[in-house]
């Protein structure tokens, strides 16, 4: 990170310009935070010590750099945090998909283009605008790509509070948005942190299909359907398969039930529009995808993260939870001898469910 400008810079005016430029680049909101995350560091350590991160070993790597921005990127004194809404208009109603047991439910954030590169490219454009205005300065852009406590930083930047389901909530826009950060050495004025407004509500805790929210603000990822369908490699614990229902990539229940999402804003980015009708495609159709078709159709999408084997594993579980029909049975039987032992195991479980 290069040194901050030595010329006389009006940082208050620059902060106002940065926020305007960020919105012009398509970000829904932007805020500026300092680097003190002491309380969040303790919360993270307790979560890791309890083993609630499961197989996500990357959460424990890099020492304290995740909670100490100045150690991750030396010279950092401020974090510019942005958010971008991700549910486009016209997307099939989420509750309707969940109620259609023959359809596969994909978390709304993953229906279109992967957001990582798109947002990082926009953050780079923001950095270029800052450079054009003041000259060389130190920065580094992150979009879920490094050890960053993004929700805590966004809270401190005034973009929302961390709800009881551990997702960031914005009073004016709910929680359906992505976050990105620009670590910088510019001593910009910081914004007021957001205050919490969950009150006594516990709808997210009560609705969680696998009871992964073990207490307010405490998530055991090992039980979370998003973890099970995306991060977990290998077998899904049997006792958690039936509660998964038809969720084949991620889970939105805790957000769908949140009263604050009545204020959710439609995405303005066309690339977030659902691809291949994945906002409600039939399970038997998705289960028939070859590996080549999977790789081709998920190119540039977050769904790639689960891998083809994980994709089939997840759909096998959903087919096991679907109503018994000739099509469902034939679909499962078509992969009863799949090359993957993981797929075979979950297909056998699903067939046993239908055979009573």
Short précis:
It is built from 15 helices and ten strands.
What's the topology here?
Layout: H1 11-24, E1 29-33, H2 38-49, H3 69-72, E2 78-85, H4 94-99, E3 105-106, H5 115-134, E4 139-142, H6 150-156, E5 161-162, E6 168-169, E7 177-184, H7 203-207, E8 213-215, E9 218-219, H8 225-231, H9 238-241, E10 247-249, H10 253-256, H11 283-287, H12 291-297, H13 307-321, H14 326-333, H15 341-354
Parallel strand pairs: 3-10
Antiparallel strand pairs: 1-2, 2-7, 4-7, 5-6, 8-9
What does the model show?
This protein is α+β, with helices and mostly antiparallel strands and 356 residues long. The chain has 15 helices and 10 strands. A 4-stranded antiparallel sheet has the order 1-2-7-4, sandwiched between helices. A two-stranded parallel ribbon has the order 3-10. Strands 5-6 form a two-stranded antiparallel sheet. Strand 8 (213-215) and strand 9 form a beta hairpin. Helix 1 (11-24) runs antiparallel to helix 5 (115-134) and helix 13 runs parallel beside helix 15 (341-354). The N and C termini lie far apart (62 Å).
């Amino acid at each position: 990170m290069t040194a901050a400008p030595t010329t006389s810079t009006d940082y208050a005016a620059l902060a106002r310009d940065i926020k305007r430029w960020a919105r012009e680049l398509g970000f829904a909101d932007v805020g500026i935070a300092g680097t003190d995350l002491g309380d969040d560091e303790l919360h993270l350590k307790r979560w890791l010590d309890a083993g609630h991160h499961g197989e996500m070993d990357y959460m424990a790597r890099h020492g304290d750099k995740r909670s100490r921005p100045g150690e991750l990127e030396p010279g950092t004194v401020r974090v510019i945090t942005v958010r971008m809404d991700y549910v486009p208009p016209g997307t099939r109603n989420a509750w309707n998909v969940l109620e259609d047991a023959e359809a596969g439910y994909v978390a709304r954030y993953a229906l279109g283009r992967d957001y990582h590169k798109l947002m990082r490219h926009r953050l780079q454009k923001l950095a270029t605008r800052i450079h054009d205005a003041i000259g060389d300065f130190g920065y580094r852009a992150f979009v879920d790509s490094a050890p960053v406590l993004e929700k805590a930083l966004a809270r401190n930047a005034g973009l929302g509070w961390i709800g009881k389901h551990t997702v960031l909530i914005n009073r004016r826009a709910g929680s359906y948005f992505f976050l990105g950060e620009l670590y910088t050495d510019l001593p910009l004025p910081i914004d007021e942190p957001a205050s919490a407004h969950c009150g006594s509500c516990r709808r997210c805790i009560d609705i969680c299909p696998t009871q992964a929210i073990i207490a307010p603000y405490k998530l055991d990822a090992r039980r979370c359907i998003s973890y099970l369908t995306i991060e977990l490699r290998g077998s899904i614990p049997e006792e958690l398969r039936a509660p998964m229902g038809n969720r084949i990539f991620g889970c939105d229940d805790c957000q769908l039930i949140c009263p604050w999402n009545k204020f959710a804003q439609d995405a303005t980015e066309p690339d977030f529009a659902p691809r291949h009708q994945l906002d409600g495609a039939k399970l038997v159709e998705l289960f028939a995808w070859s590996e080549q078709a999977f790789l081709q159709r998920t190119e540039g999408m977050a769904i790639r993260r689960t891998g083809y084997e994980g994709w089939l594993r997840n759909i096998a579980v959903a087919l096991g939870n679907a109503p018994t029909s000739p099509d469902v049975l034939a679909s499962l039987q078509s992969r009863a001898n799949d090359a993957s032992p993981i797929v075979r195991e979950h297909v056998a479980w699903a067939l046993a469910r239908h055979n009573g």
